[in-house]
Amino acid sequence: MGEFTGRIRIDRPAAEVFAFLSDPTAMPRYLETVQRVEQQGPGRIAMEGESHGHAYRDEGWIQVEAEARRMRWGSDSLKDYGGEMVVTEAEGGAEVSIRLSIVPEPKVAERMERESGAVDHAMRIAMERTLGAIKAACEGGGDPAPDGSRGGDNLPDSRPFGSSATLNPDI
Fold it and tell me: Polar residues: which segments have biased composition (predicted)?
């Protein structure tokens, strides 16, 4: 199983950052392929989106530990997938740390190697984009658009922020 980690500093109070990130319906604002998330009961979510021209729907679990400012998640259909996000206090703001465990399906791994040279490199790019999108969403202000889309409050494109993320150099 591949383990990928990253972190980024956010110029907002840690409590605000965690409140935003621990709301599953906000995920479309910072996860590039996610278009819609709905809660299906305590600790259960369903996600819909599109990735590389293919629509998907997945269900999974989510565990929010508000006191520790930690969130864990996993997928019902992808047994080798799970993650953890922790928000901590940082001078003048917050730091978001993400750990992702995933083994891409063979077709996906093949595409990642073709497009990025290696699965690890593709995952690093994806982690940088996600962290940058989190930073943009948290620092951009405003609430998500009523339809859950990213474009509701003119947030900047997350891709330029990729270089500001501090990633584990071992990946």
Answer: 161-171
Question: At 3, is the secondary structure helix, strand, or coil?
Answer: strand
DSSP letter at 7 equals E
Global pTM value:
0.77
CA-CA distance, 50 to 13, in Å (whole number)?
A: 32
**Percent helix, strand and coil across the chain, each rounded to 5?**
35, 35, 30
Ordered by where they begin, the domains of the chain are 2-24+62-159 (3.30.530.20)
pLDDT in tens, 157-168: 333 333 333 333
CA distance 76 to 69: 24
Q: Is 156 exposed, middle or buried (0-12, 13-18, 19+ CB in 10 A)?
A: middle
